[in-house]
Each structure stands twice: as structure tokens, then as C-alpha cells.
Amino acid sequence: MSIEQTPQAFETLNPIDEARRQIEICNACRYCEGYCAVFPAITKQKTFGDGDISQLANLCHNCRGCYYACQYTEPHEFALNLPGVLAQVRQDSWQDHAWPRGAGQAFHRSGVAIACAVIVGFMVLLLAVQAIGSAGGDGFYATLSHNAMVAIFVPAFLFPVLSITISLRRYWAHIGGQKVTLGALTHAFGDAAKLKNLSGGHGEGCNFEDEDRFTHLRRIGHQLTMWGFLLCFAATSTATVMHYVFDLPAPYDLLSLPKLLGITGGVLLTLGTAKLAWLKPKGDRSLGDTRVWGGEMAFILLLFVVAVTGLVLYAATGTAAVPLLLALHLGTVLAFFLLMPFSKMVHGFYRLAALVRDAQQK
Hints:
This protein is mainly alpha-helical and 362 residues long. The protein contains 15 helices and no strands. The longest helix is centred in the middle third of the chain and has 29 residues, at 146-174. Residues 1-6 have low confidence and may be disordered.
């Protein structure tokens, strides 16, 4: 297809073909070569298959610096919008490889409604279990027994693990991934931990919310969210080991490792998701995937509610509000885990896979 066609002609292309058209123009220009991992990856090839396009899309962090620097955006006849079209390809890659198929598309069409319905449904279930169950334990276990929690949460944890594993295997095959080496993993985890690709090629951050203003706000919001989530997961893992390996069941003191990790993680997660929810409406929607804006916001707010309800529940320990707060918190946690494979959360796994593949290609 000739790149001299009018912008109206580009509207008939599917996201993969439109991304291919734009990437070929970028490969000829190379002005943005140092912006992020996407552009050095582009220069390694002259032709791009569908798997190559999906790989580039998942390398993109949607910082939008390339768009604001580009001389070929509208009203130029090339009408480039690389962040926008890569966001569409990225979203389609998650949905096409998701297991079971169709669930991701449904969540991103009606993310807020689905998240609220799932939370309310689980709250009702948990309140019913509290009413008919025999707790008789200490702390939160006085409201909901340890065995009941295990019976509910083990399947809720194993399902997303299975779903995401199947999805990533499909994606890895699609992009032509090779045998994973320790060096590639180390490189990918290093980039992910630092969120290197949100720092901008100049190191001043990105201009997600303002064309003329470079900041690290989005990078900080992502880092707070990522490290907060990991600390909360570490708290749960530590408590599990203490319970089953060392026979030290909950409740734990404030200075115990599960509490220190959990409270710190909850605070970081609250701050990070609040920052991201504040930033998202400030960005130009046309530079992302407008089809799933609501679903992406629903995911951020769901993570925020998980963190806040956990902190409030801890603060309310020993009060009459615990049964209701426990049902609310556990309901949001269950909703988060079951929706994880189909929500924006899955982008972290795909992006890590894309970084591993990029390290292999280097």
C-alpha cells in the first residue's frame, strides 16, 4: 500500500495493517530512534509480520512523546498516530490470546458495570458465609473462618494463573519467542522494575497529560502501583509461609513482616492508583484505544478500592464494622483476581514478555 494515500483511506485499514503502515514510515524517518524500546526494535527490520506488530505494540508504554515530536501527524497527509494505533493492536493482542476468549472484550466494553456487579455478588456471598459459617477464630477469622477463606480464595487465585499462562503461551508463539535465557530475563526485569521506557529518550519523563510539559508523574504513579501490589502480594505470601510452615497463624502484630509489608504496600498502591486515576482524564483519549477507556479506568479504580478497603479494614479491627468491611474488602480482592486476565492488569505480563523478546532480539 502506498503511503501517499489520503487519511480517509487509512480509516478502512484494520489496526494491524494501519500500524504496519505507520511503522514503515517511522522506519524511514527514524527521528524518534532514542525515545523508547519501540524505535530501536523497528530499525532492526525492513518488513513486519503480524507477530512483529504485536511485539512492538506491547513494547510501547504509551508515553506519547513520539506523537508530539512527529512532523507527520495530522494535518499532514501521512496522518500518523503511532501511540493510538499501537494501543489498539496491544488491546487486540490481549483479547485475541485471552482464555477463555471473549471475556476480555466484554470487560473492556462494560468494565465498570462488570466490576461493580462482581464485587456486590461476592459481598453477598461472603456475608452469607459469615451468617451460616462457624468461625470461632481470632482477628478476622472470628468473622470468617480460615478454612472458608482458603476454600474461596485458592480457586480464585489458581484461575487467573491458569488463564494468564495460557494467554502468554499463545502470545509467545505469535511473536516468535525463543527459549528464555537468564540474561534475557535479567534485562527484561531490570527495565520493568525501573520503568525505563517511561523516562523518555531524554530522561525528562513523558508528556502524557500535556504536550509541552515533560514530567515523571506517570512513571511515579506506575512505580507506586507496581511496588505497592508486589508488597501486598509479598505480605500474603509471607503470612502463608508463617501459617503452614512455621505454624504461626494470624492475627499478626503490627511489627510482624506480613503487617509491615501489607500496610506499606497498601499505602503505595493507594497513592499510585489515585495518581493514575487523576492523570488518565488529562491525557488525549485519541492517543490511546478509545474503545476501552472505561475498562481501563475501571481497573485502576478497582485496584484503588482494594487498597483502601484493606487499610480501612485494618484500622477498624475490633469494631462492629469489621464484618461488613471484611466482606467489602474480600469482595473487591476476589473481583480483582477473577477479572485480572481480562483487565488492564494483564498488560504487565504481556509487556514483560515483550521486554524478554526484545532482549533476545538484541
